[in-house]
C-alpha cells in the first residue's frame, strides 16, 4: 500500500493540469476495461515501471537516457522498461493517466488522502520539463510566465476537442498547482513539475487529446486482451497456481516489451480534424494571454513601485560605499606593498648582519685560541730565555776562566805535560756539559737561537783546545806526542767544521732543520765525535 500511495501521489502531482482537462473525456471506457483484466501482480509491475520512467524523465540526467537493466527482472521486462524512454511526452502522459485512474479504482482510499504541499522548488535549467522556469522577486504576488510558458501550457493542457466528465476521476477541482515530491530508489526527494511540456523536435502531425489517448490505450488494451487469453488457456490446461503465476509474469513481460511499439501506431487525421484542433488551440491561447495580461496589470501597484525605488536608492548607496571602500582598499594595498618591501629589505639586512656577526665570532674564537697558544709559547720562551741567560752567564764565566788559563799556559809555554793534561781535563768537562745541553735542546725542540748558541759554545771551547795543543806540539814536545796529537787535532778540526756548517743551516732554516730527523742525528753524531776525540787527546798525555 505504501508503494501504491507513493506512485499515486507522484502521478497526481505530474498530471494535475492534465487531469483537470481529462475529466470531460468519455472515450476511456475501453482502456479502463482492459486494465481491469490485469492481475494485482501484473498491474503492480506495470505501475512500478511507469513510475520509474517518470522518475527518470523528471531527473533528466544525461547519464541515464533510459531505465537501467535490473538483474532480478526478466530480460523482456528490462527491454520493455528501456523502450518506455522512446515514448513521446504526450503518449507517456496518456499511459500515466491510465495507471492513475486504475490505482484509484483498485485503491479507493487514495482519493480521500490529503497530501502535504511542499514549498515551490527550483528546477535546474537543463530539465526539459521545466526549461521555462522563472524565479519570482520578493515584491511580486503573481507568477507571470513568459510567452513560451503560456504557449506550452495551452498546448499541453488543452489538446482536447470535446470536454466531458471523465469516469472515475476525482470530483473536486481544487488540485494543488504546486510541485509534489516523490521518493525514488535512492530515497532522494525529487520535485515533480505541474505539467509536462511536449516532446521538442518531434516531427508528427498534431492530434487531439482523445485521439492520442485512444491510440495508446488501444495498443495497451490489445496486449491486455492477448495476455488475458493466454492466461485463460493456461488455467484450463493445467489448473496449477504456480504455472499460472509464471505465465502471467511472462505475459506481463511481453506487455512491457511491446510498449515501445506504441510510437509506431499512429492514425491518420483528417484535414478538418486538424483545422478544428488548431482553431481551438488559438482560441484558448488568446483567452490565456488576456487572462495573464489582466493578472499582470493587477500585480503592478504603488507598493511594488515604492519598494523598487527604495531598493534602487539602497543599491546606489551601497555602490557609493563600495567605491569608497575600493579606493581605501587600494591605498591599503599600496601601504601593505611598501611595508612588505621594507620588511624584505630589513630581513635582508638582518640576515647580512647575522652572517657578518657569525663570521666575526668565529674569527674572534680563532684569534682567542691563537692568543692562548701565543701566551703559552711566550711563557715557555720566557722560561727558556731565563735558562739560556743563566747558561750564557755560566759559559761566559767558563770562557773567561779558560781564556785566563790559556794565557797563563801560553806564558808558561806548557813546559810541563802535567799542566797541559790538567787543562785538557777541565776543557773536556766543559765540552761534555755543552754537548749534553745541546742534546737536551734537540730533544725538547728548543728555539733555533738556543741551538745556535750551544753549538757556538762547543766550537769555541774545541777551537781553544786545538790552538793550545798545536802551540804545545810546536814548541818542545817530543815526536811521540806530535805524531799522535796531530791526527787527533785534525779530526777535531773536521768535527768543528761540521758543527759550523750545521750552525749556518740552522740559522738560515731552523724549522726545516729541526723537522728533519736525519739532520738532528748528524748534529748529535758530530757532538759525540768531538767528545770522543777530546777524550783521546786527554789519553795521549797519560
From TrEMBL:
<feature type="domain" description="GIT Spa2 homology (SHD)">
    <location>
        <begin position="31"/>
        <end position="61"/>
    </location>
</feature>
<feature type="region of interest" description="Disordered">
    <location>
        <begin position="159"/>
        <end position="221"/>
    </location>
</feature>
<protein>
    <submittedName>
        <fullName>19815_t:CDS:1</fullName>
    </submittedName>
</protein>
<keyword id="KW-0175">Coiled coil</keyword>
<dbReference type="Pfam" id="PF08518">
    <property type="entry name" value="GIT_SHD"/>
</dbReference>
<feature type="coiled-coil region">
    <location>
        <begin position="275"/>
        <end position="412"/>
    </location>
</feature>
<dbReference type="InterPro" id="IPR013724">
    <property type="entry name" value="GIT_SHD"/>
</dbReference>
<dbReference type="Pfam" id="PF12205">
    <property type="entry name" value="GIT1_C"/>
</dbReference>
<feature type="compositionally biased region" description="Low complexity">
    <location>
        <begin position="203"/>
        <end position="218"/>
    </location>
</feature>
<dbReference type="InterPro" id="IPR039892">
    <property type="entry name" value="Spa2/Sph1"/>
</dbReference>
<keyword id="KW-0677">Repeat</keyword>
<dbReference type="InterPro" id="IPR022018">
    <property type="entry name" value="GIT1_C"/>
</dbReference>
<dbReference type="GO" id="GO:0005078">
    <property type="term" value="F:MAP-kinase scaffold activity"/>
</dbReference>
<feature type="domain" description="GIT Spa2 homology (SHD)">
    <location>
        <begin position="80"/>
        <end position="110"/>
    </location>
</feature>
Amino acid at each position: 500500500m505504501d508503494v501504491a500511495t507513493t506512485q499515486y501521489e507522484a502521478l497526481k502531482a505530474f498530471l494535475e493540469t492534465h487531469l483537470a482537462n481529462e475529466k470531460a473525456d468519455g472515450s476511456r471506457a475501453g482502456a479502463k476495461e482492459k486494465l481491469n483484466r490485469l492481475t494485482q501482480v501484473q498491474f503492480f509491475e506495470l505501475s512500478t515501471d511507469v513510475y520509474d520512467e517518470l522518475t527518470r524523465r523528471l531527473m533528466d540526467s544525461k547519464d541515464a537516457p533510459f531505465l537501467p537493466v535490473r538483474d532480478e527482472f526478466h530480460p523482456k521486462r528490462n527491454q520493455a522498461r528501456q523502450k518506455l524512454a522512446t515514448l513521446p511526452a504526450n503518449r507517456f502522459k496518456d499511459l500515466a493517466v491510465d495507471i492513475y485512474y486504475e490505482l484509484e479504482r483498485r485503491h479507493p482510499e487514495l482519493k480521500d488522502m490529503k497530501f502535504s504541499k511542499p514549498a515551490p522548488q527550483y528546477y535546474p535549467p537543463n530539465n526539459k520539463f521545466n526549461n521555462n522556469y522563472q524565479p519570482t522577486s520578493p515584491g511580486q504576488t503573481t507568477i507571470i510566465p513568459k510567452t513560451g510558458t503560456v504557449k506550452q501550457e495551452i498546448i499541453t493542457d488543452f489538446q482536447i476537442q470535446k470536454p466531458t466528465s471523465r469516469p472515475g476521476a476525482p470530483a473536486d477541482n481544487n488540485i494543488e498547482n504546486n510541485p509534489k515530491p516523490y521518493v525514488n530508489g535512492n530515497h532522494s526527494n525529487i520535485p515533480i513539475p505541474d505539467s509536462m511540456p511536449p516532446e521538442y523536435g518531434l516531427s508528427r502531425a498534431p492530434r487531439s487529446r482523445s485521439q492520442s489517448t485512444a491510440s495508446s490505450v488501444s495498443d495497451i488494451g490489445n496486449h491486455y486482451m492477448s495476455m488475458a487469453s493466454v492466461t485463460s488457456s493456461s488455467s484450463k490446461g493445467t489448473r496449477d497456481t504456480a504455472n499460472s503465476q509464471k505465465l502471467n509474469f511472462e505475459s506481463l513481460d511481453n506487455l512491457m516489451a511491446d510498449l515501445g511499439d506504441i510510437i509506431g501506431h499512429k492514425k491518420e487525421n483528417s484535414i478538418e480534424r486538424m483545422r478544428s484542433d488548431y482553431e481551438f488551440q488559438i482560441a484558448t491561447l488568446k483567452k490565456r494571454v488576456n487572462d495573464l495580461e489582466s493578472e499582470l496589470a493587477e500585480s503592478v501597484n504603488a507598493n511594488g513601485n515604492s519598494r523598487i525605488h527604495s531598493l534602487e536608492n539602497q543599491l546606489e548607496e551601497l555602490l557609493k560605499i563600495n567605491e569608497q571602500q575600493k579606493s581605501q582598499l587600494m591605498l591599503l594595498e599600496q601601504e601593505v606593498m611598501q611595508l612588505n618591501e621594507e620588511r624584505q629589505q630589513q630581513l635582508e639586512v638582518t640576515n647580512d648582519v647575522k652572517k657578518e656577526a657569525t663570521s666575526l665570532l668565529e674569527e674572534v674564537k680563532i684569534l682567542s685560541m691563537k692568543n692562548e697558544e701565543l701566551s703559552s709559547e711566550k711563557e715557555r720562551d720566557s722560561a727558556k730565555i731565563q735558562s739560556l741567560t743563566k747558561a750564557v752567564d755560566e759559559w761566559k764565566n767558563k770562557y773567561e776562566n779558560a781564556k785566563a788559563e790559556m794565557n797563563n799556559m801560553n806564558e808558561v809555554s806548557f813546559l810541563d805535560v802535567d799542566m797541559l793534561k790538567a787543562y785538557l781535563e777541565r776543557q773536556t768537562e766543559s765540552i761534555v756539559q755543552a754537548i749534553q745541553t745541546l742534546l737536551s735542546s734537540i730533544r725538547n725542540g728548543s728555539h733555533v737561537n738556543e741551538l745556535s748558541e750551544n753549538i757556538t759554545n762547543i766550537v769555541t771551547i774545541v777551537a781553544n783546545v786545538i790552538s793550545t795543543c798545536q802551540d804545545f806540539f810546536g814548541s818542545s814536545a817530543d815526536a811521540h806526542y806530535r805524531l799522535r796529537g796531530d791526527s787527533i787535532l785534525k779530526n777535531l778540526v773536521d768535527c768543528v767544521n761540521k758543527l759550523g756548517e750545521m750552525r749556518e743551516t740552522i740559522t738560515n732554516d731552523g724549522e726545516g732543520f729541526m723537522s728533519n730527523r736525519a739532520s738532528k742525528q748528524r748534529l748529535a753524531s758530530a757532538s759525540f765525535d768531538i767528545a770522543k776525540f777530546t777524550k783521546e787527546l786527554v789519553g795521549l798525555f797519560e
